[in-house]
Amino acid sequence: MSMSAYIPIPLLIFASLFASLFFAPLSAANSTASSSASLREILPIDLGGSLENSIGASSQLLLVRSTNATAIDARISAWERTNGHWQHPFASMDGVIGRKGFAPQGEKREGDGRTPTGIFPLGTVFGYGPSFPTRMPYRQATVDDLWIDDVGADDYNRWVRRGTTQAASFETMRRNDDLYKYGIVVEYNTKPVVKGSGSAIFFHLWQGKGNSTAGCIALSEENLIRIMKWLDPAARPLVVMGTQTDQRKLLRNE
What's this model's pTM, rounded to 2 decimal places? Predict the structure, then answer.
């Protein structure tokens, strides 16, 4: 080997470290770019006109929208009706949904990795702490709290206490990864419960942009807390979930 071809090992190590610090992996860069492009394609929605046929007397709405049925990136927007007019109480937020996007209305199934499409009430707010400053019903999630996802169980799609169920499978409501540190129950498939149509649909904390869920809606801790404090049971809050095309149909009752 000639001297002109020799590169000291310390110099090689320094070059490698420099590259890792200042240049993101191509796959990560492409993922971020794809996510941003997908969110930019989500168009604003106009809530003008009568919505009583689709949402009744509700005066608080959360819209969770994606560009198409397979996208995992979602835009979450809060709306409230004051003096007959719909307005935003705060800016729209980024979120993610199931790893296989939105299921068409009525086609969500247990374990399919899809988020249900439709209009659903928002129920209990939960978290790891003994209390939370919200007007919604609040429940502390402890190590003994379980949500049943066993299709054959009598208490399928129910929040129960450990030791009170015969279910073979369930979700632990106090997770080690803290994704359920804060959450909101989406009243999907709860009244009545249809076995096999999906269970445990929540708003909960995300693992970051580009990281999908098993079917829930996930977003940042800051934004989820903002929503939890804003919700008011007297306003009969609802969530409208689906692609932007499906949402127009849902809200216009088409």
Answer: 0.83
